[in-house]
Amino acid sequence: EYDLLELQDAIRKVLMPKRYLHSLGVQYTCAALSMRYECDIMKAQVAGILHDVAKCYDNSEQIRRCEKYNIPISDVEREQSYLLHAKLGAYYAKSKYGVEDEEILQAIAFHTTGKPEMTTLEKIVFLSDYMEPSRRMIPGLTQIRKLAFEDLDLAVYTTLHNTLNYLKSNGQIIDNTTNEAYEYYRGIVG
Ligand code: DGI
Ligand code: FE
Ligand code: FE
Ligand code: FE
């Protein structure tokens, strides 16, 4: 049903080379984690290769396109409009790349913020985005890369924890969904 070579080709055409390399890295990291957690390897790879498809648009263009397609924009998303590439990406995955699987679309839509009660596939995409091989080194990344293969929920929690600390130390505003995801995973690993 899905043609990964065709999707890779399409993504290579719309994204900058480094962003394309990142997308390939997410695709293959999704495959590896799906093997570990017995998730659908094809579905995870489709979500992985497509997850940043909307990164080809700048911030104001993302707002413009979300308005055009009636994708709801929260106050935080209007302020930090790069967050919209996740929901806009899910929209394009469906409308432009023919993905109809709701779980894949949700995994793309929530790959930046995460959300409470993620499916295994959603957790795999969220983590793969953070840990794929070409991601530039940040504190705690080495630990997360190992932890992801040992305890999926603890890795999701630790990633949210590190991301929130990073955002807060930079005075960035936090999306409700990111906070809700953090509280939820803190509750289940704590
Ligand atoms: O698109 P990528 O760079 O591959 O990764 P991403 O879509 O996960 O975006 C990562 C950035 O998003 C990272 O700098 C953390 C930031 N982020 C995640 N949740 C929030 C957030 N930024 C703000 N301002 N608020 C959030 O809730
Ligand atoms: Fe992204
Ligand atoms: Fe991310
Ligand atoms: Fe990404």
Automatic annotation (TrEMBL):
Keyword Membrane: no
Enzyme nomenclature, EC number: 3.6.1.41
GO molecular function: bis(5'-nucleosyl)-tetraphosphatase (symmetrical) activity; metal ion binding; nucleotide binding
Gene3D superfamilies for this protein: Hypothetical protein af1432
Every HD domain range: 19-134
Keywords assigned: Hydrolase, Iron, Metal-binding, Nucleotide-binding
Reaction it catalyzes: P(1),P(4)-bis(5'-adenosyl) tetraphosphate + H2O = 2 ADP + 2 H(+)
Species of provenance: Anaerosporobacter mobilis DSM 15930
Enzyme class: hydrolase
InterPro entries in alphabetical order: Diverse_Catalytic_Enzymes, HD/PDEase_dom, HD_domain, HDIG_dom, YqeK
Annotated protein name in UniProt: bis(5'-nucleosyl)-tetraphosphatase (symmetrical)
Highest taxon, organism lineage: Bacteria
